[in-house]
Fold:
Amino acid sequence: MHADGEGQSRGVLNLQVGGAPHGSGLDASLLRRLYVGQFLSRWGARMWEFSVGLYMIRIRPNSLLFAAVYGVVESSSVAVFGPMVGTIVDRLTYLQVLGLWLAVQCLSFITAGISVTALLIFHNLRNTNFPVFVALVVVTNVSGALAALSTLAGTILIEREWVVVICTGHPAAVLTKINSVIRGIDLSCKLLAPLLSGFVISFVSTQASAVALALLSVASVGMQYWLFVSVYNGVPALGENVQQRRESAAAAAAAVLPSSEIVAPAEEEVQKHGQEDGSGWRVRVTKQLSNLPCSESWALYMRQEVMLPGVALAILYCTVLSFGTLMTAALDWKGIPAYMISLAWGFSAIVGIAATLLYPVVHSWVSTLQTGLLSIWMQARPLRLLQV
Structure:
């Protein structure tokens, strides 16, 4: 590493676990703060993700309607407004995105916790004051959707922006290691947060779980902001302006990824592919998407060579065999205790954590393409066996 790069590194430490990857030259204390901040931010999101289905089935017992409606509202919000979130993250500075993300997420969880608590305490509100009941249900759905969008913004900021900038100038293995750690943190929250919420719902009350979610959001938001700001101040590259950040991100992508893995073909390449297959369908679809909100994001996605594989992978999730809101509510509807459902969530998270440990090992043996194909095959094969 060059002398100026070494001058920007603070407290060069070479640690294996819980800090910087061995020989990376990254500041281990800054990485630990990044990991702790990510853990606190993901905890509330995973706790809400598990609990909301149980809340909905208790608000209207013997019906999956509210759980299904919430799932549609949340998923539709991410699908429709997700590109807008990406555009906002791209245009604002890192500190502006950080403050907006944490503020919206915290307020959303507090509002959702209060509205759910009110619906659970006043369980006859649907019969006594129907307009207020509908208003609280709408507030709960909107708050959940805003929480999902803010979580998306945080994911883009930390995992797609900060980590890439922090790893600029370091070997590709460093980026792989840090991404694996962050993914492991998310799955650890998926393991622990549902366990806490499930046991509170089973052995205390559902209202106590909703109140705990709101209180945890209030108690942790200040700590999250301090941790992330300390990381921001400790990495000079993160303080660049928007234009410099875009140029640095492009240079980092070119440095980290092999040329065969960079997937951003130019317009003429897209037109060339369209002429070769005799259809030009991708160009036509791109032009149609230009009329939609945040058309630049949709058009950019359509120009990627991995567009069709991405859609195919997304279709893989069109199955009820996943612990989403609807399946969680359905299991509770069938009489399975909340703590048992949370244990099942925990088991799935353990499998995911094992995958984060296995991925760097497999990636060191074979190429990125072979590792991805193996991962997708291992994900699709169990679903196929369950169908039989």
Observations:
- Residues 130-166 form the longest helix (37 residues).
- The mean pLDDT is 78.
- The chain is about 80% helix and 0% strand.
